[in-house]
Amino acid sequence: MFNTRLFRQWEAGKTATNSFLCIPHAWVTEVMSRQDWDSLTLDMQHGLLDYTSALAMLQAISTSDKTALVRLRWNDPSHIMQMLDAGAEGLICPSLETAAETAAFVKACRYPPEGIRSFGPMRAQLRSDQDYRETANRRVLTFAMIETREALRQVAEIAAVPGLDGLFIGPYDLSISLGLERLADIHYPPLREAIEAVRTVAQSHDLRTGIFTGKAAFVTELMDWGFDLVCFGTDQQFLQAGVVEGAATFRQKH
Predict the structure, then answer these.
(1) pTM across the whole model
(2) pLDDT at residue 1 above 80?
(3) Of 46, 187, 205, 254, which residue is the catalytic one?
(4) Whose CA, among 65, 92, 113, 137, lies 20 to 30 Å from 7?
């Protein structure tokens, strides 16, 4: 494994922390990487990132000991391989609903004979102190997002896909897909039941579990529930909160 904080936390039996990066700027990424996270995730799906900005952001993360993950824009083999070649240490694939879709994702992350990944690691090989080709298949993390009613129905089949490392719950889309009135509220019984169902399946298949929350009040609770990776907030969210607080303070004084 890469000798970064995410893996060291897991080796110590602890929950790893994470935040999402949506702002396409290396300096913002560098600021985030200096905070007390174990890993950071580039959000290629909903963030404003393109390949050029993502590459610079991966380079910025590498100035720290944080593990660099990428939430893919979609289950697209060319995008998967490009992000891995750029140096992503793990991928989170959105909107997977079947074992076949998940298997295609995993195969795109693995070199033959386990998969179909084309060889050309470019920047990724610079991040390795060993032969990248020989070690990449067991070093690159693969997380399948469970965020739809259908994915929840087929979660056991998804979890059984060979080479998959973890299940990552997307509580916002999952709430919408289930028709829930309270969005991403982990205390709402229908969502809590779905979360527990995913965690139970993951544990039975010896997979890691991850989840995102935009609420600070939920972070400790999710860690106590036993998630391996708890992701809190985004750089944009923190920037906006700081600006709102600063502007309010200014108005109070003037």
Answers:
(1) 0.95
(2) no
(3) 46
(4) 113
